[in-house]
Amino acid sequence: MSSDSTIDPHPTREVAGGTLVRSQGVSGPAGFRASGIKAGIKASGNADLALVLNEGPELAAAGVFTANKVKAAPVLWSQQVLTTGRLRAVVLNSGGANACTGAGGFQDAHKTAEEVASALSNWGTETGAVEVAVCSTGLIGDRLPMDKVLTGVTEAVHELAGGISGGTDAAYAIMTTDTVPKQAALHHAGKWNVGGMAKGAGMLAPALATMLCVVTTDAVATAAQLDAALRAATRLTFDRLDVDGATSTNDTVLLLASGASNVTPTQDELNAAVTAVCDDLAEQMMADAEGVTKRVQVTVSGAVSEHDALIGARTVARDSLVKTALFGSDPNWGRVLAAIGIAPIELDPDKISVSFNGAPVCIDGVGAPGARDVDLSDIDIALDIDLGLGEHAVTIRTTDLSHAYVEENSAYSS
Amino acid sequence: MSSDSTIDPHPTREVAGGTLVRSQGVSGPAGFRASGIKAGIKASGNADLALVLNEGPELAAAGVFTANKVKAAPVLWSQQVLTTGRLRAVVLNSGGANACTGAGGFQDAHKTAEEVASALSNWGTETGAVEVAVCSTGLIGDRLPMDKVLTGVTEAVHELAGGISGGTDAAYAIMTTDTVPKQAALHHAGKWNVGGMAKGAGMLAPALATMLCVVTTDAVATAAQLDAALRAATRLTFDRLDVDGATSTNDTVLLLASGASNVTPTQDELNAAVTAVCDDLAEQMMADAEGVTKRVQVTVSGAVSEHDALIGARTVARDSLVKTALFGSDPNWGRVLAAIGIAPIELDPDKISVSFNGAPVCIDGVGAPGARDVDLSDIDIALDIDLGLGEHAVTIRTTDLSHAYVEENSAYSS
């Protein structure tokens, strides 16, 4: 994993009118506590159960879920409870997806939410099961060890903490094949804040990756405003991260607002802040994708519509022959032309121009001088495809297709 | 390459009312000659130029070409000459795709056809350039070394031979990353015959793979009958071979009829014979696909339509996580459920059943006892998915995603 050494774990930058840091996550905004513990669900003994609590005063929430028709039990449960637009807590486990587990698996998700509600109520925060979302990730098809999950829930409630440590513990506890935890927080000059954590390292694709993501804010916002902000953010961030075209049964992105800052941002401000946090998390997910040796941004410009630009960029980002060439640092632009040529979009082969890292390799459908000599040895590769037809452009984040990807996905059930 | 040791190079079997052999190809049917020579186009010095000649008495022909919007110059040329429904000859080169080469590349294809026509005319067979189809395969984006191509054409004409040897030489000369030549011939008790050769080892996908294929017959048939037979055959064979979802700029399948047998089969007989030869070639292509360690047949049954079955099987056959699991002999049926769940088809997650090599691993959307213990160590894997909704079924041939696939496609420009 090259990302360990090349990504600064705590970069601070100005974005969306605030300061973005990676040292905090879901418990950064006021009104939130989080925890992450070792419940014994994972055979490895690593942390595997996380809890995020909204202490209010408000409990508004929204969610976006996988587009896969095969949905895991926790997705079905969380979609149901989210219809109220309210969430008190989110419980997340790694070590098992609880997908394709039938009616028993759904009962397990329900039982987990009831246990969280009961433990929080005993702890002094009156909670109903219908206020608890459940997220799971891991191997599809096995029932969860419910004795361990339920014991873990009680411990996770006891461990709830505010500030940095609780959120970071939670970010660790949701990791599967991730090599690093992923969190980010955006602070608006001490006024209001957005924080988030995510996991996801394979099966990254449109309409969400195999990813779990919880975003919190202390802004005052209604469930409808949160829903609008979350959909705007995921459309431009997680939906444009596509590692291998696969879409999980468990993808869940949740947004919870406590209102504890007493600040009511405009919808535009809220959208921008949530998008900034999701964008940073998506970048972290790309950098930590399974087997990644190249971080690739595929941009299709000059398209007649945003839809065409998106489909074109996605088609190239998924092409196994393009991805293996990038793994080999080979500026094989002919494969890019072959890939874009099968995208179901408007294009004129004689108007397509391609560049790698700014160096033209194909101009108006014909190879440019020196195209075979472009240096792609760096970890970051910008692949730009100009269709020469219109004004629309979209960028998709992806990775190369490496030996490590094959190894990681063939050697172990995950 | 496991295929070398496990596939009998010369199996003989009864199919479509005839006897199918792999010891003959395009020069098996009466009225055809073929040759394959070393023109010096390939840096390796291997054979790289092939010629197929129809000596008549008839010259009927049909073709099917890539669905890629980016089409190589020889595809554009051959599509144009095929509008006449007549072909005297096909010239094929490996060592260069002549794609994305602009107007100069098209002139090269035209010039090659003219040289073939001229050489054949000098040899005693009056031929016009408009009767010569051109096929190319290799790296996209480079102009062909035309001096070598044109010298090679003259030599290929001189080498034209009937019987087995000419066709086999031609089958060798069109290979790129193929490890074995691919040919098949179907004999109807000495009455009429169909023969074919193909190349293709990567980029195998729907609407044709990176494949060149020439099929010949000594039957009496019109261009329209040949066109119908070829479309029926490719729909059920090459279009159902999908190694990596990629579609080449150069895919070409041609069918030529000499009428030399004086036998006029019915359309159904012609369809069945051409389909049998194409099916055998498709099987050979799967077995020799780049990096293959598993030969996989993905069948989706119980679909509400053939279209749904096809799209479902194709979606699973392309899924990188399913393919890497198969490489690891891992019966990870959860990935199969996740893959079929994103197919844009009608399905009910609670009615899906899956089996590997006949052993049930998932019944009505829930894991079956012993599912994790199914043995997938054999090279051949049958993956059956029953949607439980209707009566339609389609099988797609595919392969696993292995280290060798990554190696072959990253280490060398091809």
TrEMBL record, chains A, B:
EC number, UniProt record: 2.3.1.35, 2.3.1.1
Highest taxon of the lineage: Bacteria
CDD domains (alphabetical): OAT (cd02152)
Family annotation (InterPro entries): Arg_biosynth_ArgJ, ArgJ-like_dom_sf, ArgJ_beta_C
Reaction catalysis annotation: L-glutamate + acetyl-CoA = N-acetyl-L-glutamate + CoA + H(+); N(2)-acetyl-L-ornithine + L-glutamate = N-acetyl-L-glutamate + L-ornithine
MF annotations from Gene Ontology: L-glutamate N-acetyltransferase activity; L-glutamate N-acetyltransferase activity, acting on acetyl-L-ornithine as donor
Gene Ontology cellular component annotations, sorted alphabetically: cytoplasm
Function: Catalyzes two activities which are involved in the cyclic version of arginine biosynthesis: the synthesis of N-acetylglutamate from glutamate and acetyl-CoA as the acetyl donor, and of ornithine by transacetylation between N(2)-acetylornithine and glutamate.
Name of the molecule in the record: Arginine biosynthesis bifunctional protein ArgJ
Provenance organism: Rhodococcus koreensis
